[in-house]
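Standup notes
- HV: blocked on the assembly model, inputs below
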Amino acid sequence: MSKCYIKGIASITAQPTTVEDQFLEEIISYQESIFRASDPNYKEFIKPAAMRRMSKAVKMGVTASQMALKQANIEQPDAIITGTGMGCRQDSEKFLEKILYDDEQYLTPTLFIQSTHNTVGGQIALGLKCKAYNVTYVQSAVSFESAIIDAQLMLDEQPNSNIMVGGIDEIAKTSSRFHILNGDVKKEEIHNLELLSSTTTGTIASEGATFMVIGNEDTTNNIAEIVDVEIKYSASVEEIKKDILEFIARNDLEITAIDAIVLGNNGDHSFDHYYQELQQTLFKDTEQLYYKHLIGEYHTASAFAYWIGTKIFEYKNVPDVLRLNDKKSQEHKNILIYNHYRGENHSIALLRKC
Amino acid sequence: MAELVEELKEKIIDQLSLEDIEVSDIDNNDPLFGDGLGLDSIDALELIVLLEKEYGIKLTDPKEGKAIFQSVQVMADYITKHRTK
């Protein structure tokens, strides 16, 4: 498999993660089970005429992609590959509501055009006038990882390409309420920074966009290498432990070589045991980090773990707010990422410092 | 007529999500497309739906829109003559 380097990365989340020269120094706390992403000044990145039709997912995606391109010092990517679990939910809801309330009459084109899952990838391409390969993966909690795997395959076939890869999901009023009703989101209001002390089922929901530019050219501007990514639809805790051991071994490493593991604990009492088992067994002596108490859960939340890994390499520092245990690595070279959503759509990834 | 023109401006701003534009920013005779408000072909489709939903005017030939959507004033004149609600 071709080398895969992160040249630029940006993330818009419920935390002020777009503030330059900061790595989670300021934290926003929430006392609710559903919270919105913190908005950067979108007008700096999107023309007003284009922005008026954009839902939040599109605005976040277009802005994060431009920030990543800027960091990578690249104007035109050779491909745009996005992942989203739920796509443009806000405009989908508005479109469906119009069908319902206007008795299937007077349907307008804008909401329909903007409600498809590949709207974000399309709007990025339109903004950049980029006619290159453009694909969107809709694979629940492994949507972002599916996009990375596609990019890795493309880098094998077309070396020296620069590929834009991103994950986007947004909150929408009605479908978010459904997630409370079916128990995916906690019914009670909860302080996000105390998420893991919760003993109830469900999690806290939010939204965000993380974009990165990846390529296989070995340059001094590279921040991190995505060494390997694996996805699996369904697995028991024991199977995941076995998979992670095999994953580490096939990359010629031992567990002791993992300097930190970034886990996707989301406070759901019914499913966090996957993470807890890893914390208490394979990685009991490893630095353990988590992030969903800061940015909430959504189908492409795991993309933020890549942002965290990259920032750790860049800043040579781990903010205490990410820590799950008191183990601290002197140096970070290999960072493992593990995530799943409600016991399904597992992903394992290995990042290495460049 | 003046009331209809103001109402139309409000509906256009709302329907087309012209976030940074106020009613007072739109001159009655400003062209809606091109140099004026800078609307595009998707907006034209939105305006066709607006005419039908709000005023009961059904444009059977979308090419008619080119003449009707010249400006807010021209739209208001057309609505006055053809409205069914």
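- HV (later): unblocked. Chain A touches chain B through 13 residues (CB under 8 Å). The beta strands of chain A are 5-12, 79-83, 133-137, 162-169, 208-215, 224-234, 260-263, 287-290, 334-341, 344-353.
- Next: hand off to the docking folks.
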